[in-house]
Amino acid sequence: MPDDDQSLSEQRAQGATLVHAPPQPLTLRINGAEHHLTIEPRVTLLDALREVLGLTGTKKGCDRGQCGACTVLVDGQRINSCLTLAMMHDGREITTVEGLGEQGQPHPIQQAFMDCDGFQCGYCTPGQVCSAVALLDEVKARQASMLTEGDQLAPGALSEDEIRERMSGNLCRCGAYPNIVKAIHSVVLRQA
Ligand code: FES
Ligand code: FES
Question: What's the pLDDT score for residue 102?
């Protein structure tokens, strides 16, 4: 089967007209506010946040689902915003790092990152923080990870290895992992 580039050149050689889908209206609900946009269907959620709405707290690392820098919450669940189209989230509740804390009153996870020195460059931190916030809800719901024995996480059974496994989609190239794990564990223990 020819790859996409080959198909494209073949289409061009045959004089085919490339069709671009026209911009479409959509409503993104982000951090409690509604944004009415008209954008091309091919725009990713990450680009809509950063380039269209100026919400640059969410970072673009790899742009291909490998680093977790672009993690945001959609209806409370963490996703890589570089791997999904904005159009797919019309009307859903999106939370970015800008929506997690209040001025002067950070989210407990944000405070723990500061207390435990859980970041260095800060580039991956918004994604780490969003991911950790979703992790708290997953733990409350006793969702299992790859490491959990059985179908559900037992109350109080979130080990540091479990945190590492659950945060494994978020990379930190400067190696702040021990402090990130410590920060998340401190919040989990306080909320237990
Ligand atoms: S930018 Fe989305 S996972 Fe790396
Ligand atoms: S603190 Fe961002 S890559 Fe390490």
Answer: 87
